[in-house]
Amino acid sequence: MRPLRRVTGRVAVLDRPDVDTDQIIPKQFLKRIERTGFGEFLFYDWRFDEDGNERPGFELDRPEFRGASILLAGRNFGCGSSREHAAWALQDYGFDAVIAPSFGDIFRINSGKIGMLVIALPAVEVDGLMESIDLDTGSEMTVDLERRVVVAPDGREVPFEFDETLRHRILHGLDEIALTLEHKDAIAAYETAHGFSGTSRRSREVPGKATRDGRGAARRRDRAGGRRGGGPRAGRARDRSHGARLRRERDPRTGDAAPRRDARRLSRVRRGPPRRGRAAGARRAPGAARSRGSWGCARSSASMRTCDRRARRESTS
Length: 317
Fold this sequence. Notes:
This protein is α/β, with parallel strands linked by helices. The chain contains twelve helices and seven strands. Among the domains are: about 5-180, Aconitase, domain 4; about 265-280 and about 290-315, no CATH class. Helix content is about 35%, strand content about 10%. α3 links the parallel β2 (about 70-75) and β3.
């Protein structure tokens, strides 16, 4: 981001309220991956018709507004969807400052990140600046960020408020990365004090916390050593996983851990009263409700017959 202290140039007037970001840069032009090249599509639906021909009468196409670097706009400028391409398009078109009574919050933030001045003034002051513009030959205006004043074409100065942190960044050309790098000495001292110096972020393992990169590195080392199945680490992980599953899948009556062969069946077990009713092997009458054994198993497969035999042994003991 380049430093910006003062903007002096021709002024364009777009006296329309609630200009949203979809009008600033229509959605069909958001496919580009670069931050440049959006200026030619600025206000495209207002500037051009369906055949790509210029529409007569659009404000920015007036000869006295061409080449403007300051835009005077109506209230709530930049409202609508949160597309940063709107700020990119305005800057790429040539605007370095936009003055309006109010702005969309996200548009204002996106503009500050790229170093474009977004200045909110009372509606009365904005109307006075618009009236001071010579619509026949055009006029020039100055926005002084250091002094925080707008100098009108007639020489009148209008003070404005501006966030001090953002002002510092724009005056010195600091984007978010450059702002972080101002503290690189403190960052390096912290990494050295905590043993992070000289190691990449993804290779660090926090004590007491397994990292994804650490597990992946262990698997790669195990494969390189010829150990099948991921080696000892993977084996311990499987044992812990199986143990956790057995702790979850217990006999609902006794609380004993289930054998491994019964793990899948017991995952469907629900508590229920001891089975009463028809004898094992008897056919269920058509339309009769499905009965449940003492373990609550639905009688639908060979594994359910195992539940019946176990229920009979428990009832006779």
